[in-house]
Amino acid sequence: MGEIIDRIRARRRARAELKNPAYEIFIGILSLLSIMNLVFVYALQGDTAMQVVLTVMNGVLSIIFLIDFVYRMTTSEARWRYFFRGFGWADLLASLPFPQFKVLRIFRLLRVFRLMRDLGPKQIWVTLIQDRANSTLMTLLLLGILVLQFGSLSVLAIEEYAEGANITSASDALWYTIVTISTVGYGDQYPVTDAGRVLGVLIIIVGVGIFGTFTGYLANLFLGPSDASASDSRARDVEPADAAAGVAGGATSGAVQVGADAAGTQAELRALDDGTARVQELLAQTEAAVVELRALLTARGDDRG
């Protein structure tokens, strides 16, 4: 029995350390991406430009993981337990820009696996559907990072050695991808091959979806009514109806009460009248009995005389 209680307590502590499911999945996928980048670094050692792109992306991921560590450390119910027993030390070391420590990001994958195991896929899916705002935001950020990395690597691989190409370096590829995702399109960097143009069209389509949805999210966040104001508005809408219903209810209740009182008074009067009639009947019977008794006594006195 004690072991079962300890397991339940340990599971509750583990769930307390976990954050929003959408956020945990976002961090888990980025951790997997960073581990994949280690493989890409060794696989693309002969291409300096692609190495630079991977280095920049690893720097971006390191900043995100450092923010994640600070966020978990500041919001944890037991900070030192998270740091020593919850692999917080691994999160800290993995967020530093040192290749030797990046393999420690696998502990973040273990955290996502623990989330899937404790909550279950069905519960996670229900949570993601109910919390659409956070799920949308995390999805947009994830798509932006994935498009930035793989779009830059792909356009660089296609355009780097093409004839007349102007996307020949890591900075060119990153700049082109960022400008295309944002749909700004300065035109200073552009693909010259058919494959590069097809890739550019795909990046534009994804970028329009990302920034369009993100703009709608921000507009709803800053311009939409807050929960408190929405509740007040609903309360104001309901108050007149409630007041009218209250007045009508009070009037109805008063009318019913008056009617009940009147009915009660009439019943009492009828009962009083019935009682009076009964008393009068009894008095009449008593008088008749007295008369009969006097007659009998008179008759008996005459007999004796």
Tell me the series of helices and strands, N- to C-terminal.
HHHHHHHHHHH
Question: Shape from CA axes?
Answer: elongated
Structural class: mainly alpha
Low-pLDDT runs of 5+ residues are 251-263
Tally of alpha and pi helices: 11
| Major sheet | none
Helix content: over 70%
Rg over CA atoms, rounded to whole Å, is: 43 Å
Number of domains: 3
Would you give an account of this structure?
- With 305 residues, this protein is an all-alpha fold.
- The protein has 3 domains: 1-130, no CATH class; 144-224, Helix Hairpins (Orthogonal Bundle); 229-299.
- It has 11 helices and no strands.
- The chain has helices spanning 2-17, 21-43, 48-75, 79-84, 88-95, 106-119, 121-130, 132-159, 170-181, 194-223, 227-304.
- It starts with a helix and ends with a helix.
- The model is unreliable at 251-263 (pLDDT under 50).
Summarize the structure.
With 305 residues, the chain is mainly alpha-helical. It has eleven helices and no strands.
Give a quick set of tags describing it.
mainly alpha; Helix Hairpins; 3 domains; 83% helix; elongated
